[in-house]
Design brief:
With about 400 residues, the chain is mainly α. Helix content is about 70%, strand content about 0%. It contains 13 helices and no strands. Helix 3 runs parallel beside helix 9 and helix 7 crosses helix 8.
């Protein structure tokens, strides 16, 4: 497993990728400060959040534009884009060191030599082939993402739900077309007033989407590999006294990244649905958008859940196999010791085998943290389900 073409060590590139989106956001903030669209009277973001949560009011000071700092959906997309990039780079860093982490001295869960022997060698070679995506295909995918991002921008700049909501939360339940046009034309990323901001808006969203696709592609093949691993590798049981997670913590970190990626996807989709939701749009347009959003939400959420479940299942099956093999060996050793009259040693061996029963289950500890994380993840999932239902009813 010395060849790792899909996780090359390129520190400079990784730093540039990590800093790219934040620097773009900073540049947008500075540019809007210069041209006067960073903030506006009555458009404090905390006030906007309070109105969204607590309900509409008839304020003395009305926010009549959409400055940078009040555009919460765009800021949310910027945050999820940066998160997608960071999670992707974190994933390849974890993968780069995975074989070393799983075979570290004293807590190795398998013999590293198995990775260079069949059947694991053949299966891993197939895994690498799937990950060697030609540059032309990557360029095609990135171009498609840019095209989608541009189309998304065009739709958002014309029918952004925020333009109507800004009036709704300030005591105007049914804003006129002229009122909505006022918010639309004053939007900080409007092409007609500042094309550079529009281009950066498209770029930030497209970069996050592209890396989310790359991460999904990588995780799909990692999940397929882990599904086959229990049948290809002989695992070794690591007692809890040596390692509290029985040597499986490095793989557990991949599962955590997959879980965080799923939450990032759900949150970005919530923002996407919010921006594109337009009950007043022509019916054909509304039907097409609603069907596409519903399909992406359903398929994407299922795929994310399937990846996390497959990783956890692979860990559980591999660990259970190592536990079973260890118990079989201990029972055989105990029987052999009894046959030779070494009853004290046989009893000690049986006690160790009996103690392994308490280790059954998922090897990675921290059940309370996992339950709390799952509970926190239910909030955006419920919100997404609510938004998707509202698209159709």
């Amino acid at each position: 497993m010395s060849e790792r073409p899909f996780v090359p060590s390129r520190p400079v590139v990784e730093v540039l990728l990590i800093l790219g989106v934040p620097l773009a956001m900073v540049w947008m903030a500075v540019s809007t400060l210069v041209n006067g669209t960073f903030a506006a009277a009555g458009c404090n973001p905390l006030r906007i959040v309070r109105l969204l949560v607590a309900g509409a009011e008839h304020p003395d000071l009305t926010c009549t534009s959409v400055p940078f700092i009040a555009d919460l959906p765009s800021l949310g997309l910027g945050l999820t884009s940066e998160t997608a990039v960071v999670l992707y780079l974190l994933l390849i860093r974890r993968m780069r060191k995975l074989d070393v982490s799983l075979t570290r001295e004293g807590a190795a869960i398998f013999d590293k030599g198995q990775l260079d022997q069949d059947p694991m060698r053949t299966r891993y070679a197939k895994f690498l082939v799937r990950l060697k995506v030609p540059s032309i295909r990557q360029l095609v995918v990135f171009s498609a993402v840019i095209t989608l991002g541009t189309g998304f921008y065009v739709s958002a700049s014309k029918t952004n739900h925020l333009f109507k909501t800004m009036a709704n939360i300030q005591g105007v339940p049914h804003p006129s077309v002229s009122v909505q046009d006022g918010y639309r034309l004053s939007w900080w990323a409007q092409w007609d007033t500042d094309p550079s901001m529009a281009i950066l808006w498209i770029a930030v969203g497209s970069i996050g989407t592209y890396f989310a696709f790359r991460q999904a592609y990588l995780y799909y093949h990692i999940a397929r590999l882990f599904k086959d691993v229990p049948k290809l590798v002989v695992f070794r049981h690591v007692p809890a006294r040596i390692d509290r997670d029985h040597g499986w913590r490095p793989v557990g970190r991949l599962t955590v990244i997959a879980y965080l990626s799923s939450l990032c996807f759900v949150c970005s989709l919530i923002v996407l649905i919010y921006i594109l939701r337009d009950p007043d749009a022509p019916r054909p347009y509304r039907v097409v958008i609603n069907v596409l959003l519903g399909a992406v939400a359903f398929a994407g959420t299922l795929l994310n859940l399937a990846v996390v479940a497959t990783l956890r299942s692979g860990i559980h099956k591999s660990y259970a196999k190592s536990l079973k093999d260890r118990m079989v060996r201990l029972n055989s050793e105990s029987a052999a010791l009894e046959n030779t009259g070494q009853f004290l040693a046989a009893r000690t061996t049986r006690l160790e085998a009996d103690h392994l029963v308490s280790d059954a289950g998922y090897p990675i500890r921290g059940g309370v943290v996992r339950v709390a994380s799952l509970a926190s993840g239910l909030i955006p999932v419920i919100k997404l389900s609510h938004d998707v239902i509202n698209l159709y009813f």
